[in-house]
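Response to reviewer comment R2.3. The reviewers asked that we include at least one raw input/output pair. We reproduce the pair for Aldo keto reductase here without editing.
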Amino acid sequence: MQNVKIAGRTVPVIGIGTWHMGDRPAQRETEIAAIQAGIAAGARVIDTAEMYGSGRAENLVGEALQPYHREDLFLISKVLPENASRQRMAASLEASLQRLRTDYLDLYLYHWRGSVPLAETVAELQRLQQTGKIRAWGVSNFDIADLKELWQLPGGDQAAANEDLYHLGSRGLDYAVLPWQAEHDLPLIAYSPIAQGDSWGQHLATNATVKQIAVAHQATVYQVLLAWVIRQPQVLAIPQTSSVAHMEQNLAAGELRLSTQELAALDQQFPRPTQKERLDII
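Raw output as returned:
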């Protein structure tokens, strides 16, 4: 599988997303099995957040990761905007750590911007990093103006990643955000990289070109969509699934390389933006 370097660690380019997991008690064992299947297939990054199910996803992840050596995994969680202050972030982090049954996070992300001044959030993230409870910090749902503002703050250029929505049907990042991040050596974590199972509305999975490429590689259409997202360096995709079979297919997509001609054909179907677009957030 291809790799990406994030926060000083080299990890496989396909990780495990956990949004919507932990919400249905009847699915708990199935979801735990899916996460563990992903790790068995080579995943090392597990991405979650205190927002997901109001902590239920973190609880599920904490249980799923018990059989493994903690240092072998790369665990990401996120702080809500209302908790991203000097007064509240430490307690929020501690609650996440308890739910996850760990004493540190590899990466702690500011989930999206709120009313707390960005400088205050960054200063508190840096302070928490010094305690060892987080190994690195970053941001999420940041657009180009947010990133430029971040880089002007004391310590802002110590951010280890930005996590944004990115898939073949949502290419706004290609115009300014991804080039800027490449220039500043800031990895992208792509959430919803297969458009939430094609609920986004562009009919990616039924597109004739996508299907043709999938047939040529003896792959699924979702594997093609994932291969497109990780086609360039320093992009980590975190698809979410509660199915063991789909999880294994997701991880196998890390081996799939699309040709120049195939990428050009996808560009024709889903063109690169020629001007700034609104940042897509879900």
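The chain has one domain: 3-269. The mean pLDDT is 96. Further pairs are available on request from the corresponding author.
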